[in-house]
Amino acid sequence: MRVLLVVTSTSFPKADISPDIFPQGVAYVAGALKAAGHEIFGLNIGYARTRKNLPRILFDGLTRAISLYQPQMICLGGLSADYTFIHAAMSICRQFAPDIPIVLGGGLVTADRQYINEDLRPDFSIAGDAEFPVVDLAAALDKGSTMEAIAGLSYWKDGELILNPTARETKDMPPYARPSYDEVGIEAFFQATDHATCWNLASVYPRPRIFPISAGRSCPFRCTFCFHSNGGIYKQRPIPEVLQEVSYFHEKHKFNILVVYDELFSIKEQRIREFNDGVRRLGLDFRWTCAMRVSDINSDLLSDMKDAGCFTVAVGLESASDTVLTSMRKKITKAQIQTAIDASVEANLPLYGNFIFGDPAETEDTIRETTEFAIANCNKAMLSVGRIRPYPATPLFNHGIEKGIIQDKKSYYAKPPHYNLTAIPEDHLATLIDHAVQATIGQLSQCLGDHRIFLAVQPKGEFDDFKRSCFVSHQNCPYCGHGTERKINFHGDIQEIIAGRLDDVSVFIRTPRYFLCEICGRQAVYTLYRPNMELHSLEFPPGPLPLFQDMTAMLDPTT
User: Fold this and answer.
1) Which fold has domain 2-163?
2) Can you give the residue ranges of the Radical SAM core domain (predicted)?
3) In contact, 433 and 420? CB cutoff 8 Å
């Protein structure tokens, strides 16, 4: 069977590129279908450089893919935030290829199965992990056999929605086929990755190639804001199996930054130490990062991880108020957060975490407490500040429904607004959050950089409507003086710059951006702008760009 996989664009319908993470689910589905002998094609418009209407690009790309590949099944999937993209893509499929069955999956379906099926009306949908059910579905469509036994499958029979039971969960990760990334746009992701949208992960290489590996799925904790589309039982993969896959994909995709996906990677210290030893034995040229709970962190473990190539650790912080942490059911304390940050400073392995304001227990005092904590620690850890969002099937979402704060599911999915779940008036809440953001950034020191800035221009890609361009600069850490370069994609048309329409560029080069020093591990900010800056435009063929020092040499070949 010929299958078309349509990858969601996270910014849709805006033409913004946010390549901070690559969707693994679609790669696992591609791998499962390929292993079963099916022919797989992919469409990924998420990295288009354009100022056109992105829905138009989706229409052009999807209709062209359907004409070119003649698929017998079209698969889409995503989270609740991807509803707008999925709705648009399904509408195009219905208009252009009404006879091709549409299969919908991902957290969007799993979290709100009945509503999403009745609202979007896909031919089929899959709740939970899709690797086995999608293969069973393809076989059933090929053979015309019944579908009652396919776990997690939803379908229509005589106008009635049939919801098959989901698969029984186990503690061990099922033997899924190896994911396949070639068909779903991994190389476009590599090319789109820069030091702005992915600053905390991309910092250690001038030309980052960030790659995900899954070491576990789901989480047994029940934080009020979190939903797990993989079920409620935490599943682990054996570390030797993970390391074997790391080696395979490093040879295949030449990544230099590995992101370990496993929310409880640190639940057993020995498991991380086994991974550390395995990475050292591999001896491959990459750095890596993972996520940990602050309650599992100690300086000795972090030192061992750093020795094995780890360069930063993501942690779930959410709040520095014990009142709010209790309300969130985080099962951590403010004191544990501080202990974890201090341990990371001792080990010189920086932590990265978010504070999210807006829990129902949030007050002006708790916001102030978290803001003061962030200000005091933002030079020790990479801390960002944002706003909580209630996701379907979470206690936070249910609270919003019960209190009448979320009144209309259709509006929630189609254009999710900010929902104020606190007793603080909205305008004042927004002001408090903005103050927290600005106060935290204001504590960070400013990098000093080379006065020469390069505007590197390359040919446009498949879905672009103008040439690709990025700014390449050299920045010096304000703490230790280490120099490193930063590549920042510019999403405008280079011809507009040449024509003198520089408003967008002027704002762009003056925008503060986060900086993580790969040597001392401290956070700073920088801008491209310098009072004496020299902007040099250079054109290059497709592929990896030369380094800053090589561009500098092009200005004066004798140097």
Assistant:
1) Rossmann fold (3.40.50)
2) 203-434
3) no
